[in-house]
Amino acid sequence: MSFGSRCPLCAGPWVSPRLLPCLHSLCSPCLRRLGPLGEPGRGASRSALCPVCDAEVVLPPGGVSQLTPDYLALNRGGGAAAAGCDLCVDGVAARRCLTCGVDLCLFCCQAHRRQKKTASHAVTELENTKDSSHAGKPLYCPSHPTEQLKLFCEQCDQPVCQHCIVDRHRHHRCDFTSNVIHRHGDALRELLKSTQQHVGTVEGVLSQIDDMGSAVHSRTEAVATEICLFASGYVKAIEEHRDRLLKQLEDLKVQKENLLHLQKAQLQQLLLDMRTGVEFAEHLLMSGSDLEILITKGVVMSRLAKLNSVVYNTHPSVDDRIQFSPQERAGQCCGYEVFGAILNKVVDPARCTLHGEDLHSACQNQLTGFTLLFNNTRGERMRQGGEAVQVTITHKEKVDCSVKPTVCDNGDGTYHISYSPEEPGLYAVCVYVKGQHVKGSPFTLMVRSKFRKHQGVFHCCAFCSSGGQKAARCACGGTMPGGYQGCGHGHKGHPGSPHWSCCGQVKQSSECLGGPPSDTSQRSLLRTVAL
């Protein structure tokens, strides 16, 4: 990643550059020409594609003006040429007055020290600052242009001026930027260190994928040779059988290479995003002033945290287990019984299925679960386990509310997933095999509140259980002649077995729902990728 002194879109000098969530900067005029960026949000967030990396970024409701200013870009833009003296026209700045915040040439610096009002000001060499053009210069408040940003509001997580404290941040906890920069800078460094470790891991996985691709290719060629030697002893029927086997082998090779290519492309994009984040964070900590770090650290930490939370496989998604069995019966070919088949023990996530009575519903604090059935690329049942299965169960409305499931490999191609939800509500359940959704994943899970105690009596009918009261009612809606509202024996709508008089449920362990539960399950638009 390069940090240039010009806008990457218009190639012109920076004009009020703003920082996107993907850590790429653009001029404000260029941002306003990007469709949705140029229109007011009207209270709702919008998405746009970054023209540099094509990443989808969420824009603030207020539009371009609400994006984080990129003061580092201004520093890069001004650092190409020597800065001029702020007091005279022809002088080249050599020193800076730390009290006034102005750049001075040698002549003006001597005059600055001879004047009574400025004789006591502290002056330093420009090369002692982080950037000879902009670092150390005061930054002014957007709301109060004459006031410098010298304070930091902990509640709003942004630099403020003295007028802001009296106005909008009156009751907020604020402190000087020099007092809080160490704590916030250390937090950013810790997140940067974690991201750097992920970069090394992703690079290692990509290397493994390249090695595995070569192994798959070599193994495929070896199996093709075996097939040709075996088929050479037959005439037309065997030759046709050989061609059919080679076609199956080629399809298998393409499928494995596609899976590897898919995983490689995903990891390459993740690695590119991580490198972008690492390079920007390193550049910010190395070249940015304290105030610039505080202004920019929010969007940087948000981006790095998002990258660190991405789940990825630390091993290649497929292996080179391709075998040829010459003793395997292969049916008829041109009227001849032929032998020889490719043994493919590759699980196909798109053909794996989920089973269970309570697949879409569960009860609060009650252990339940479902079963995952493995199938290969032909839809045939697999009889061995050993594959990595990932399951996530997250609440759709409550943030940071999830259920930690337990995955049990039965060793026969089935996996039992058990869990016990602590909070009621709608959950999104995702089941992954080799990084892909299985058939039916993701799906919605409704977790109901704890069992409600039955208010009635477990009996054959409401009339009996109520002691013959006319006003007794049953949830099945049945009535009896003679003005009785409750149900009797054998009438239309009667469950046909003993049931609870309050809700009509026929099982003693059932919940008291007062009626049949409504089906609130919804299907997600996400689908399993089928190669």
Structure write-up:
The structure is a single chain. This protein is α+β, with helices and mostly antiparallel strands. Helix content is 30%, strand content 20%. Among the domains are: 79 residues, Herpes Virus-1, CATH 3.30.40.10; 151 residues; 100 residues, Sandwich (Immunoglobulin-like), CATH 2.60.40.10. The chain is built from eight helices and 25 strands. Strand 19 and strand 20 form a beta hairpin. Helix 5 packs antiparallel against helix 6, helix 5 packs parallel to helix 7 and helix 6 packs antiparallel against helix 7.
The gist of it:
This protein is an alpha+beta fold and 531 residues long. It contains eight helices and 25 strands.
Question: Beta-strand level of the residues, as a percent range?
Answer: 15-25%
User: How much helical structure, as a percent, in the residues?
Assistant: 25-40%
> What's the end-to-end separation, in Å?
33 Å
Average residue-wise pLDDT = 79
Low-pLDDT residue intervals, each spanning 5 or more residues:
38-43, 129-135, 515-531
What is the total tally of β strands?
A: 25
Main β-sheet, in a few words? 6 strands, mixed
Rg, rounded, reads 35 Å
Rough shape?
Answer: flat
The helix tally amounts to: 8
Given the helix and strand composition, which structural class is it?
A: alpha+beta
